[in-house]
Design goal:
- The complex is a heterodimer of chains A (about 170) and B (about 200).
- Chain A is mainly α and about 170 residues long.
- Chain A has helices spanning about 1-5, 10-30, 35-50, 60-85, 105-115, 115-125, 135-140, 145-165.
- In chain A, helix 2 packs across helix 4.
- Among the domains of chain B are: about 45-75; about 85-190, no CATH class.
- Chain B is built from seven helices and four strands, in the order H-H-H-E-E-E-H-H-H-E-H.
- In chain B, strand 2 (about 95) and strand 3 (about 105) form a beta hairpin.
- In chain B, helix 5 packs parallel to helix 7 (about 165-190).
- The termini of chain B are far apart.
- Classes of the chains: A mainly alpha (about 170), B alpha+beta (about 200).
- The interface of A and B includes residues 28, 64, 68 and 129 of A.
Chain lengths: ~170, ~200
């Protein structure tokens, strides 16, 4: 991040390699659409490069990048929601209009589909290795206690669904 | 299926996700873009924001506590009449108090009594303080004097079903009358004295 801040554009490749999985999954969790998640992924790193001056050294770079990704994802989500509302009210789904196709396991994908956006994003962030609870709270802009509560609620829903299916 | 198993499955799925390599597009976009678009970037929260949040939380807590105290005072007041203290001989009063010796209301049938009541805030206050205030104001306005208090001309009748309550309220009456007598004597430049006129 320091090299990127000094204008070394190639340093972005290193940052991308370290953080892109979390960004992509977060965008996917919110949007449930691979193409839109890919757009967000691309736009996120463009914004990172353009706004590197706003990054405060020695703070959590991963969280900072994910905050940008989350804001872009939510913007896409809201635009899509409005567009779908205008196009056809029947198409409106409470959880978005796509699917969690990144999940191969059918029951797990079905369980994820039962979650709201706020639950889905937190569960996905918890599933990414190396993400600390404090970091997740920073990304979603909620207190740690609230994040833990949403996570527990989501897991309970998923557990209920998966046990029904067994 | 428990939480760990679900998360393990999800972790495996997350590990296996193939992240699209969009670096080429990113660099192209950066090359093409001359202007910086910043509106999607919300400043990262940290440092000072924490203290603002703590301050807001403390403020909210204070409001909650103060609000609770006010609400408890508002609704915890017992409006059932436990005893009535009739003051006769001067500007007469009938003071209704609850079990906690808090004044529910004060009635008077005389013009002097109304004049005194106008000057005393009695609602929900401690009976002894209210009676002291009523007597002191009555003394100041010249409706009663120390002779009247000491001679028993001003009488205090306590109506209650509870003997222990009567004893307690009688103690309050005696102390209030003592205070009023002292007040009279201070005004008149006399010394201290006792009384014995409550029943």
């Amino acid at each position: 991040m320091q090299d990127l801040g000094k204008g070394d554009r190639l340093a972005l490749d290193g940052v991308f390699g370290l953080t892109s999985r979390g960004v992509y999954l977060l965008a996917y969790a919110i949007l449930r659409n691979s193409e839109q998640a890919k757009d967000v992924l691309q736009e996120t790193y463009v914004r990172v490069a353009e706004n590197i001056g706003q990054y405060k050294p020695n703070t959590n770079a991963n969280a900072w990048i994910n905050v940008i990704a989350r804001n872009l994802s939510l913007r896409h989500y809201n635009v899509r929601k409005r567009t779908v509302e205008i196009a056809s009210p029947d198409d409106i789904g409470g959880n978005g209009n796509g699917e969690d196709n990144w999940i191969v396991h059918d029951a797990l994908r079905g369980a994820m589909a039962r979650l709201g956006v706020d639950e889905r994003e937190i569960v996905v962030l918890f599933s990414i290795k190396g993400y600390k609870h404090r970091e997740i709270a920073q990304i979603v802009g909620k207190p740690m206690g609230t994040v833990q509560w949403i996570y527990n609620r989501a897991i309970k829903k998923m557990k209920g669904y998966m046990e029904e299916g067994l | 299926m428990n939480e760990n198993e679900i998360m393990k499955m999800l972790e495996t799925e997350a590990d296996n996700v193939e992240v699209p390599n969009v670096l080429g597009e990113v660099h192209t976009a950066l090359d093409q873009r001359g202007s910086v678009v910043q509106d999607a970037v919300i400043p990262f929260r940290g440092g000072r924001t924490i203290w603002i949040r703590i301050a807001l939380a403390v403020a909210a807590l204070v409001v909650l506590v103060v609000g609770s105290v006010i609400m408890v005072n508002q609704f915890a007041f017992d409006s059932n009449v436990y005893a009535t203290i009739n003051v006769t001989g001067g500007p007469g009063f009938a003071i209704n108090v609850n079990r906690d010796s808090r004044v529910i209301d004060v009635a008077t049938e005389t013009q002097d009594g109304l004049t005194v009541l106008d000057k005393v805030d009695y609602s929900r206050r401690d009976f002894e303080g209210v009676l002291s205030a009523l007597l002191v104001v009555a003394v100041d306005l010249g409706f009663i004097d120390s002779d009247g208090l000491e001679s028993g001309q001003i009488a205090f009748d306590i109506e209650t079903a509870s003997e222990s309550g009567r004893t307690r309220l009688r103690g309050c009456v005696n102390r209030s009358v003592d205070a009023a007598i002292r007040h009279c004597r201070n005004r008149q430049g006399h010394g201290n004295g006792n009384h014995n006129n409550s029943n």
